[in-house]
Fold this protein.
Amino acid sequence: MKAIKTVMYSTGYNDAGAEHDGAIRMEAEELREVARLAGLPQELESLDSLVYVDRHCRMHLPLDVAEKLAQSYAGTQSEMVLIYIEDEEEECKARG
């Protein structure tokens, strides 16, 4: 779950992240862009029947799709993920 959160935070979107159960809930347009960058179909609904967009334009991804998205994004955008992790590490070191 934490790995999914870390990868999603590295995308730079303000509402990026993952829930305690690993599911992702964020703006549909933003998730479609993350999917594009990850080399996945932007129509994430085609990956699983449980993927949906609610009335507030937030897309909901179950754990298995969230995991696939995070793995694909980390594979294609590894430099962005590593930069995020290094920044977090530096911040932790600075705090002691």
Summary: The longest strand covers residues 24-27. Strands lie at 24-27, 52-53, 58-61. Residues 6 and 96 are 21 Å apart (CA to CA). The mean pLDDT is 94.
